[in-house]
Structure formats: structure tokens, C-alpha cells
Amino acid sequence: MYKYFLTITLFMYITNVSSDEITSSPRLGDSLNKTITLQDERKIGLNIYKSLQRQNNIMNNFLISDYVTYLGNRLSRNLAIERDYVLFVTKSTSVNAFAAPGGFIGLNAGLINLTENEAQLAGVVAHELGHVVLRHSAEMMAQSNVNSIPMWIGIFAGMLAGQTEASIASIKSGIGLSVQNNINLVRENEIESDTFAVKLMQRSNYDLNEMANLFKLMQGNSNSQSNLNEYFMTHPLYKNRISTIRNRAREQPNPIINSSDDYLYIRNIINNKIDSSINYDYQAKEDDVENHRISLKLLSEGRFKEARNILQESFNKSNFNIYIASTMSEIYWSEGKKREAKNILENVLTIYPNKSIRIQLAIYNIKDQINIEENINYIEKIIENNPYNPELYKLLAEGYLLTNNLFKSKLALVNYYDLKGNTSLAFKVIDDAVSSKRLNANEKNHLKLLKNSILCSSNPPLEPIFGDKTCN
Questions:
Q1: What is the pLDDT of residues 159-180, one digit of tens each?
Q2: Residue 342's closest CA among 314, 327, 364, 319?
Q3: Which residues, 6+ apart, have CB-to-CB distance to 351 below 8 Å?
Q4: Do residues 156 and 167 lie in contact, with contact meaning Cβ atoms separated by under 8 Å?
Q5: Helices (H), 84-135
Q6: Which percentage of the chain shows pLDDT scores above 90?
Q7: Dihedral sign, Cα of residue 212, residue 217, residue 219, residue 221
């Protein structure tokens, strides 16, 4: 039985999807913007993301992040609507996914572990993208009497913190709808997002049958509501959902099930982070993916030599496979064989300039105090396009500290704590830096402005009606 994890797929009031909805702007976008703008949605979603980071509930592994981003891009590139999406994997073992306001899409580790191929996972992502593009959470907020962004942040954060009853009560009292109306509207919402997902899957050429197969897999052999898992608590399974998707699948010529083996290796990494089983078969296999899975388990248990022996033959055959190479490099690094660990990564980078492999090498070099400036510059460039992984800022803070650049080190550390949802520590770093004699007046002023920006984006103070205001 999967653990319970309440998702935040808060989509309430909807209308039907037109045939061209997938390539045009949402019809209700203009009217919704009068109540809540895309910028407001983003602010709420970012705070939800920070709340999850604060609870240490997000997997910040670079290979995982790159893969789910790739999957999101493969689907979203078929949309004419330009939005920023942030896909991430949570550590929850429950089978669920959610779309928070502003394009933040969470995939639970338990759901990914249940899927059998990339097309099944793509079906879930496409469905959640539908909720984002059609702005279902914004429509729900527009129907509510709750019109304060800080209140919505508090409601959603309360759900994530387990204060679900109070949060749901706040939403229901604000919307003023009956329970039956809520059920009907959520069901309609799911139908609309399914329709969107089917079209998106077709345009991306992912196998629609696999989307239906995943719903069937999650549904199990029983039709009893009590036996349905968490996904169907927040994504109601209406009668014809699976058959409707299968009918549309007949129109697909040569659809994709797995675009590559990346899905299989990523599932190994995710499963290793949530798998606490004791009984394990540690024998080497003929299959490289299986050897990768076993070696990850041994590595996590500190059994480095055994992990290396299991992976060695697969590595000899596929030393440019980024997942096998990354794991083998980590094994060598854990054994204290630093040069061997770096050689593996450098060898991969000669033919495949993979970002995650390059970051892993940067981590080793900064810890080893080698080519620090070069590696700092690389991390800075990565952050420009990927500003949501807190581990990048932590690495940057360490690198700048080694180069005696106190200001930039403090700046990176503030961003790290802010993204991890720890505002008090972010402010403490700023206050300590401002009192330091090693920073000049411009640097101190920059940090003061940053403190004000964090305050106003996370927990803005109650402003006076007249006179100067802190945030607006």
C-alpha cells in the first residue's frame, strides 16, 4: 500500500476544450488575468516549490532533473503557448503527480517507479501540462472569495505541511460550492486535461495505448473505490476514460514507447533513493540496466568494491554511457581514487558534452580545489537557464569561498537558502554579510535589496494604507 501524499492538483471550474486549444492561448486567459496574472501564479507556484524544498521532499539529483526537463521539453515543444515549466521529482512513494500554479509540475517517485516505459510517464506529464496551460488552478482561485496571494500561498503550503483539513476548509468556504458540484467540476476538469494530453501525446508521437495502460495499471484488478490508489483520489477515473484513450490510439502510426534507454536508468536512480529493501540479489547480470541498478544499491550501502565489480563489465562495454560512467566515477571517488573518477568523466565529455556529467566533474574539481574559476564560470552559465536547483547555488558558494570572493559566496548562499525555503537563514547570511568590513557599500546595498525582494516574494508584510510601502 503506497503512503498517502496529498497532491495539489487544484483544478475546479472548467469548460470544454476546442479542437485547436492546444495551439492557441487559453480562451479564459484575459478574464483570468483580471483576477490573477501569470506572474501571480508563478509567485504562488514558486513558494509551493520552496515549501517542498524546505521539507527536503525534492530529488535535486542533476541526472534526474535533466531527464524530466527533457521529457517536458519533448512534449511542450508541440505547444504554441510559450510558458516556463519546472518539472521535478518528489521523494514521495505514493503514486501521484500534481500541477501547482505557475508551471511547477511534480512527479512522485512512487509514480515513476510504477511506470513501465517512457510513454506511460509522458502521458502523466502531458496531462499535468494540460492543467497548467488551461490555467485550471487560476480558474479555481478566480471562483473563490480568497483574493490574497499570501493567503493562497498559506493554503497550499498548509496542504504540503499536512494541515490539510484547515486548508481544504479555507478553499471550500471561499468557493462556496456544494460537495457534489466540486466532484462534478473536478471530473469535467480531468476530462478536459485528458483531451489536451491525448492531442499532445499524438503530436509528440508517444504511444497513447501506454497512457491507457498506465491508468489500467494504477486501477488494478478491482473496481472498488476503496482499492484505488492516491492518483484517482485527485484524478477521478470516469467510466470511459481508458476506452476513450484507446480509441484515439488507433490513429497513431508507429508511436514511440521509449525514446531511449534514459528512462530505464533514471528509474534505477529514483528507485534506489526510495528503496529500503534488505533482500537483494547482488549477482552480476547480462543486462547493463540491471547491473547499474545493483551497483547503485551497493554504492548506497558503502560497499564500493562490490559495486565496482558488478558494474565493471558493463562499463567496459559502454564507458560512454553517461549513467554507467557517472556511477562508476562516483564509486572511484568514494574509494578515494580521485584521478580515476575524473578520468571517467573527462573521457565522456570528449564525445558527449552532457551537462550533468560536467556538473559532476565541477563538483569534484571544486572539492579538490582545481581549476576553480573555470568551474565557477560553468556553474554560473548553468544557473542562467536552470535557476531552480538549490544544489547549484551551494556548489557556487563553496567555489567562491575558495577564491576569497566573500560577496559572491554570500550571494550564492542566500539564493541557496531562499530556494530551500529557509528564509530565516537567508536573512541571517545577509545580516552577517552587511555587518562585515570585507564588503563595500555597493555590495551591502545589493544584499539589502535582495533581502527586501525575498521578503516581498515569500511573506510580504501588512502594508499601511498611507505612506511608504515595503513591497509595492
A1: 545 444 444 454 554 444 444 4
A2: 364
A3: 320
A4: yes
A5: 109-114, 118-133
A6: 58
A7: positive
User: Span 380-404, mean pLDDT?
Assistant: 96
CA distance 451 to 122: 39
* Model confidence at 149: pLDDT above 60: yes
At residue 41, φ and ψ (nearest 5 deg) are: -60, -45
312 in Cβ contact with 285 (< 8 Å)? no
pLDDT of residue 340: 98
- Report residue 280's pLDDT band, with 50, 70 and 90 as the boundaries: confident
Q: Is a pLDDT exceeding 60 seen at residue 228?
A: no
Strands 86-90, 104-108: pairing kind: parallel
Residue 26 corresponds to which cell in the numbers above? Answer: 487559453
CA–CA gap between residue 121 and residue 69 (Å, rounded): 13
User: Which among 52, 285, 37 has a CA at the least distance from the CA of 160?
Assistant: 52
Dist CA 246 CA 207 (whole Å) = 10
Contact 444, 434 (CB under 8 A): yes
State the DSSP code for 12. -
pLDDT classification of 186: cutoffs 50, 70, 90? low
Which letter does DSSP use for residue 66 in this model?
H
∠ CA 353-356-358, nearest 5°, is 55
Point out which residues pair with 284 in neighbouring strands.
none
CA distance 381 to 428: 27
CA angle 234, 236, 240 (to 5 degrees): 160
Can you give the pTM of this predicted structure? 0.86
φ, ψ of residue 89 in degrees (nearest 5): -115, 130
DSSP 281: -
Instruction: Render 339-390 in DSSP notation, one character per residue.
Output: HHHHHHHHHHHTT---HHHHHHHHHHHHHTTSSHHHHHHHHHHHHHH-TT-H
Q: Say if CB 72 and CB 90 are below 8 A apart.
A: no
Crossing angle between the packed helical segments 118-133 and 208-219, to the nearest 10 degrees: 90
| Alpha carbon distance 187, 192 (integer Å) | 9
Distance CA(132)–CA(258), nearest Å, equals 25
Other beta carbons less than 10 A from residue 11's beta carbon = 27
Retrieve residue 356's grid coordinates: 550533468
